[in-house]
Design brief:
Organism: Actinoplanes oblitus
Radius of gyration: 36 Å
Order of helices and strands: HHHHHHHHHHHEHHEEHEEEHE
Strand order of the largest sheet: 2-3-1-6-7
GO molecular function: diguanylate cyclase activity
Protein name: GGDEF domain-containing protein
Helix content: 55-70%
Enzyme class: transferase
Number of strands: 7
InterPro entries: DGC-Regulatory_Protein, GGDEF_dom, Nucleotide_cyclase, Rev_trsase/Diguanyl_cyclase
Distance between the termini: 86 Å
Number of helices: 15
Number of domains: 2
């Protein structure tokens, strides 16, 4: 049976059972109830089989939740029908329901975590909003009802925490279900619908429960609809891609967004304070707990924004100081490095600044600039195309990195020109020998083996040199070297 056919058959059956639940005789309603709840188990098993191997953990949690829910349902129905306890046992079945609810929420939160990898900030904002609204819902709607029913404090705390957990999970699920890719979010949206129906049932049940503790049977329709939504989520073909990361939206905290989040943070205390001013019952401890639950979320949000800002600054610095093609320091970074190293070198003192290249400059009073220009690059670029030319430049950059010593700098000055800043004595001989050996080997470019030559002008720093003077002397020496250029050879001229 195809995926869509199986989904349609399941959806049709559970829809009929949920819609006709109240039409069944009261003593027979346990059959459609168990039929809807129990069929969610094989539906989740189908999801486990279809989901990719690395994304099955949420469905394992949901399977465990469905097993516990159904075990609790069987115990509760048996006690109410056979055991003669109209309100269940209030013990073991409730423990199973609580554990199942925790597992279901854990599975939903794992879906959120895996799906929202590109939208953590938006998910946190949604959770803050949902938890704040849940606190208001508790204080304005559920607290008066629980007070009237004389619910023990421990049960009130458990119900309050459960409400906040479900509200926050629903907010996160609604956020991650927003996906512009058609057909890939159906399972997530159906799962979010199931969480929303669960929240509706948790809110509605206390409102309609009588003073004798009996809950009207029609409220089961809400919970059955939640089971049906979960089963449809598990059977929908999009379950195989539901944990694929969504496109990351912009995460800018605009003034309007900050105002909204600030309002959400203040909402619960404001509502609680307003009720206190009107002489209405207020649960101060739980209001404080609700506000405290939001503080870590806000701190995480701020920490993420700070980290994103630092990353953006580092990226801008990298773009400003690095050549986009080769990854080497660019012209500006090379000149900055020389501006730091030259005064120390000409004064005979060790350079203390770290160059943009890996490693630190070696101390000493020798500073040499090698201005390199590729011979034969233009014919390769013209014959094989710009892509091949770029490939050749990247290959030359990689080899030049291996020609310098620790603390030296290799930069791309522009076009097919490279400037090496070397520290310590003997740089011209040591580095030029390595460049000469490099030039004898062919380079791969455009699917061919090509050969080029390298003309090098070397200039050692003098006390009266400025950065411009030092680079210009090396540049002029390089042009003298080009007069004897040969492909596959090094041409070197030392500036006077």
């Amino acid at each position: 049976m195809g995926s869509h056919v199986l989904l349609r058959c399941y959806a049709a059956i559970v829809t009929v059972l949920v819609a006709t639940y109240l039409a069944w005789p009261y003593e027979l309603r346990s059959w459609p109830f168990l039929a809807v709840t129990s069929t969610a188990v094989p539906a989740v098993l189908v999801a486990l089989r279809r989901a990719p191997a690395g994304s099955r953990a949420p469905w394992w949690l949901m399977l465990a939740a469905m097993v516990l829910y159904n075990t609790g349902n069987v115990i509760w129905i048996w006690l109410t029908t056979v055991g003669g306890r109209p309100n269940g046992d209030g013990g073991f079945a409730d423990v199973l329901f609580t554990a199942a609810g925790a597992l279901l929420l854990a599975g939903a939160l794992l879906v959120v975590r895996l799906r929202s990898r590109g939208d953590i900030g938006g998910v946190i904002d949604s959770v803050i909003t949902a938890v704040a609204l849940g606190g208001v819902l508790w204080d304005a709607v559920l607290l008066p009802v629980n007070t009237a029913h004389h619910l023990p404090p421990t049960q009130q705390i458990a119900a309050f925490l459960d409400l906040l957990a479900v509200s926050g999970t629903l907010g996160a699920m609604l956020r991650v279900s927003r996906n512009s890719v058609a057909g890939r979010s159906a399972s997530v949206r159906l799962l979010a619908a199931g969480i929303a129906l669960t929240l509706a049932g948790k809110v509605m049940a206390p409102l309609v429960t009588g003073v004798d503790g009996m809950r009207p049977d029609w409220t089961n329709v809400i919970y059955l609809a939640a089971y049906a939504a979960l089963g449809c989520a598990a059977l929908h073909p999009s379950v195989a891609t539901m944990l694929s990361g969504t496109p990351a939206p912009d995460d800018d905290l605009t003034r309007g967004r900050l105002t909204f989040l600030g309002t959400m943070l203040a909402l619960t205390p404001l509502v609680g304070g307003g009720r206190a001013m009107l002489g209405l019952p207020v649960d101060g401890e739980l209001i404080a707990l609700s506000s405290a639950a939001l503080v870590p979320l806000v701190m995480i949000r701020i920490a993420r924004l700070a980290a994103q800002r630092r990353a953006a600054e580092q990226a801008l610095h990298h773009l400003a100081t690095r050549d986009a093609l080769t990854g080497l320091p660019n012209r500006a970074a090379c000149l900055d490095a020389l501006a730091v190293a030259l005064p120390a070198a000409t004064a005979g003192a060790p350079a203390t600044a770290v160059l943009p290249a890996a490693g630190s400059p070696a101390p000493g009073d020798h500073l040499t600039v090698l201005f390199c220009d590729l011979d034969g690059f233009k014919p390769v670029n013209d014959r094989l195309g710009h892509s091949a030319g770029d490939e050749l430049l990247v290959a030359v950059a990689d080899r030049l990195r291996g020609c310098v010593r620790e603390g030296d700098l290799v930069s791309r000055f522009g076009g097919d020109e490279f400037v090496l800043v070397c520290h310590g004595p003997g740089a011209v001989t040591a580095v030029s020998d390595r460049i000469a050996a490099m030039a004898t080997e062919p380079f791969a470019a455009g699917g061919e083996q090509v050969r080029i030559g390298i003309s090098v002008g070397a200039a050692e720093a003098r006390p009266a040199d400025t950065v411009d003077h030092l680079v210009r002397r090396a540049d002029l020496a390089m042009y003298e070297a080009k007069k004897t250029k040969q492909v596959g050879r090094l041409s070197l001229v030392l500036a006077a």
